[in-house]
Amino acid sequence: MYKVKVFVTLRESVLDPQGGAVQRSLHSLGFGQVEDVRIGKYMELTVKESDQDIDVVVREMCEKLLANPVIEEFRYEIEEGVIQ
Amino acid sequence: MYKVKVFVTLRESVLDPQGGAVQRSLHSLGFGQVEDVRIGKYMELTVKESDQDIDVVVREMCEKLLANPVIEEFRYEIEEGVIQ
């Protein structure tokens, strides 16, 4: 069993209005020292072992469904041998 | 300047219908080995140095705005001395 952590973030060049809204809220709560906020997605997947290479499988899942490669970037971490 | 990475996840006991939907989509795309998906948020904050302790500041931001402590858990990583 693998525990896979996927991080999906907007590309640097893509505007992040949600992040801007959070930053303004933080400012109005008194956290004026926050210069920038970027919002992304974080996914935890539990994946069964199979005869396919886990790295290839995870990359394919990200490219096909979990991230939109036009505007988003992804990275992932794979932990092996997790007992449920 | 600090770079802060915040991970917000649903508490274990809270149902994650969005994660369930992603899991079903992965199954229908042929990734039947995916046993579980949990969706969370990932935020990258750039924070200026101030006279307040950065750890205290980030914890307070999470508790007040970035996470809903009733249904969500958070953890964060702080990287120091990031040059923009």
UniProtKB/TrEMBL annotation, chains A, B:
Subunit structure of this chain's protein: Part of the FGAM synthase complex composed of 1 PurL, 1 PurQ and 2 PurS subunits.
Gene this chain is encoded by: purS
InterPro entries with a match to the protein in the record: PurS, PurS-like_sf
Subcellular location: Cytoplasm
EC annotation from Swiss-Prot or TrEMBL: 6.3.5.3
SUPFAM superfamilies: PurS-like
Class of this enzyme: ligase
Name listed for the protein in its UniProt record: Phosphoribosylformylglycinamidine synthase subunit PurS
Principal cellular location given in the protein's record: cytoplasm
Keywords: ATP-binding, Cytoplasm, Ligase, Nucleotide-binding, Purine biosynthesis
Classification lineage: Bacteria, Bacillati, Bacillota, Bacilli, Bacillales
GO cellular component terms, A-Z: cytoplasm
HAMAP family assigned to the protein according to its UniProt record, in alphabetical order: PurS
Pfam hit, one: PurS
PANTHER family: PHOSPHORIBOSYLFORMYLGLYCINAMIDINE SYNTHASE SUBUNIT PURS
Biological function: Part of the phosphoribosylformylglycinamidine synthase complex involved in the purines biosynthetic pathway. Catalyzes the ATP-dependent conversion of formylglycinamide ribonucleotide (FGAR) and glutamine to yield formylglycinamidine ribonucleotide (FGAM) and glutamate. The FGAM synthase complex is composed of three subunits. PurQ produces an ammonia molecule by converting glutamine to glutamate. PurL transfers the ammonia molecule to FGAR to form FGAM in an ATP-dependent manner.
GO annotation terms (biological process): 'de novo' IMP biosynthetic process
Pathway listed: Purine metabolism; IMP biosynthesis via de novo pathway; 5-amino-1-(5-phospho-D-ribosyl)imidazole from N(2)-formyl-N(1)-(5-phospho-D-ribosyl)glycinamide: step 1/2
An example Gene Ontology molecular-function term: ATP binding
Family according to the record: Belongs to the PurS family.
Catalytic reaction list: N(2)-formyl-N(1)-(5-phospho-beta-D-ribosyl)glycinamide + L-glutamine + ATP + H2O = 2-formamido-N(1)-(5-O-phospho-beta-D-ribosyl)acetamidine + L-glutamate + ADP + phosphate + H(+)
